[in-house]
């Protein structure tokens, strides 16, 4: 097919990122789900949105007991904190700690710096095309996963 090379390139990138994520998890004695949870919570925070245990469970496809164990594990390691929501005291809000952010930056910082260097070689129009492509591919994968 005409664009199969793009699929293979995306697969190669995904494999490299998964290997790097596995190395991060191993080095920091984390489960793969722990890493996915931390990424999800960081992304949620970056978007200015509240993260709750229920949201995290739905996002990761976990049941309530597994989510509680996950949060307990991350909180026990000092990577996540829980707080009662000021507006609704029944709701618990989740936060990634500074220690977790530093741990992630120490490991992934060099990758982020390298990606920034790569990005500098592209025009604004090219970057908009890349963003659109990645958004559409991510949506397609999400639709397939949720089907």
Automatic annotation (TrEMBL):
A Pfam family annotated for this UniProt entry: MarR
Family annotation (SMART domains): HTH_MARR
Ranges of residues in domain HTH marR-type: 3-139
Gene3D superfamilies given in the database record: Winged helix-like DNA-binding domain superfamily/Winged helix DNA-binding domain
UniProt-listed PANTHER family: TRANSCRIPTIONAL REGULATOR, MARR FAMILY (PTHR33164), TRANSCRIPTIONAL REGULATORY PROTEIN (PTHR33164:SF106)
Identification of the protein by name: MarR family winged helix-turn-helix transcriptional regulator
Origin species: Gordonia amicalis
């Amino acid at each position: 097919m005409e664009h199969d090379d793009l699929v293979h390139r995306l697969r190669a990138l995904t494999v490299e990122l998964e290997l790097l994520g596995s190395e991060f998890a191993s080095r920091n004695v984390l489960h793969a789900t722990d890493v996915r949870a931390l990424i999800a919570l960081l992304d949620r925070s970056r978007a200015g949105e509240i993260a709750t245990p229920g949201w995290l469970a739905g996002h990761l496809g976990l049941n309530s007991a597994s989510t509680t164990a996950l949060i307990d594990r991350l909180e026990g390691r000092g990577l996540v904190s829980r707080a009662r929501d000021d507006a609704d005291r029944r709701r618990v809000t989740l936060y990634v700690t500074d220690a977790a952010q530093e741990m992630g930056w120490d490991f992934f910082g060099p990758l982020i710096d390298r990606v920034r260097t790569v990005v500098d070689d592209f025009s604004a129009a090219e970057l908009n095309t890349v963003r659109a492509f990645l958004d559409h591919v991510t949506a397609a994968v999400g639709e397939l996963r949720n089907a």
